[in-house]
Amino acid sequence: MTMPLPTLRPLLFAAFLALLPMPGDAAETNLPPGTRVLADIAYGNDGRQRFDVYLPPHPENAPVLFIVHGGGWRNGWKDHPGLIANKASHWIPKGYVIVSTGYRLLPEADPRMQADDVARAIARAQRLAPAWGANPDRFILMGHSAGAHLVVLLGSNPALLAAHGARPPRGVVSLDSGALDVVGIMQTRPHLSLFDDAFGDSPAYWRAVSPQHALVRGALPMLVVCSSRRRNACPPSWRFARKAEGLGTRVEVMEQDLSHMAINRELGLPGAYTRQVDAFIADIDG
Length: 286
Fold this sequence. Notes:
Layout (H helix, E strand, L loop, with lengths): L4 H15 L16 E7 L7 E6 L6 E7 L16 H7 L5 E5 L9 H22 L1 E11 L1 H11 L2 H4 L8 E5 L6 H5 L6 H7 L3 H6 L2 H4 L7 E6 L6 H13 L4 E6 L3 H6 L6 H13 L2
Parallel strand pairs: 3-4, 3-5, 5-6, 6-7, 7-8
Antiparallel strand pairs: 1-2, 2-4
């Protein structure tokens, strides 16, 4: 028997939440030999305004991969399982410094405040970078899910970064953002209730936190990875890329036959997916 949609939607939402990382998950320990970790560096007074730094053995003028976790704007943490290990295994031996930041979550902080937190964290990391052997002008932003929404929002309008003293990063890698077009999501029914929790009922606010609507000339180069297994993941990515092209901004879309969670967890493993992301990063850092 087919379950009616009103009954099915809460079950689907519960299943979605079950996949999200929860605060307090243990830090990953499967790191390349010689990796040094500087944990819980503060960029604000709140306990979540902290980032971790993963250093290769002898960094010198090193590029920085700055990672923002997902979790539906309500959950997640900077060292949750699946976020760091494979990326560290791939990029730390190449001489990259990895920074993974936390940020305040719903209901304490809405997505615009979360984006402000990330911008502050970037500015703080850039100020500290020379002491790590890293170059503050060689930052690449990377985020997954809600974190992807935040880094794309900042990359779409670099004035949001400058307002908090951050220098423009080299570019952005978005790992399966679910919210490139917030206005489109909120105007479409039904949608997951986590979007109502995050974005509320103000059309003006929807536009303010929608990368599609925030995109300006001078936006950062971006690679938008989307899951071809999710019906609503890739079409907004292509629309975003077309708007960016009209503004003279480089946005590449990479469709991947992977689940939403695998797009995050499997990046860094040997294979075509990692090679393509690697090529984009090397190109914008070149």
